[in-house]
Amino acid sequence: MKAAVTVYTTPYCGFCHRAKALLEEKNVAFREIDVDARPDLRTWLVERTRQRTVPQVFVNGKPLGGYTDIAALDRAGKLDPLLDAPPSPDDAALRD
Ligand SMILES: N[C@@H](CCC(=O)N[C@@H](CS)C(=O)NCC(=O)O)C(=O)O
Question: Does the predicted TM-score (pTM) go above 0.90?
Fold first, then answer.
């Protein structure tokens, strides 16, 4: 899995744990950013994803949504190809 994966989370969030577990099952390395005490990042995430929940999973700068979204992509066989694609300098920048 070559993609650059970032997961925005909060502690005590069941969907965050499930998203991370799915990625860990696939041996995907990912960066986790805790937005619990970061209202600035929360605001940016809403602007970027149009969603107000965590987790928010980004692959090579592209927002994929939360756990149910990546699980649906996985069931459809569409997640692994995204995770196998290497990052490019043109990828949208993320915040931390
Ligand atoms: N379908 C979403 C549901 C995510 C969700 O409901 N997350 C909760 C935390 S586990 C949330 O963000 N609630 C609103 C909030 O914390 O502000 C997913 O699978 O990621």
Answer: yes
Q: How far is the CA of 20 from the centre of ligand 1 (A)?
A: 14
Specify the DSSP class assigned to residue 77.
T
Establish whether residue 45 lines the binding site of ligand 1, counting it when its CB lies within 6 angstroms of any ligand atom: no
Cβ atoms < 10 Å from Cβ of 17 = 14
Q: pLDDT per residue over 70-95, tens digit each?
A: 999 999 999 999 999 999 999 999 99
How many CA atoms are closer than 13 Å to the CA of 37, on its beta-carbon side?
Answer: 0
**Beta carbon of 54 within 6 Å of any ligand 1 atom:** yes
Question: Domains in the chain and their CATH numbers?
Answer: 5-84 (3.40.30.10)
Residue 31 DSSP SS3: strand
Q: How far is the CA of 55 from the centre of ligand 1 (A)?
A: 6
Counting ligand 1 atoms within 8 A of each CB, the residue from 43, 46, 54 with the most, and so the one to mutate, is 54
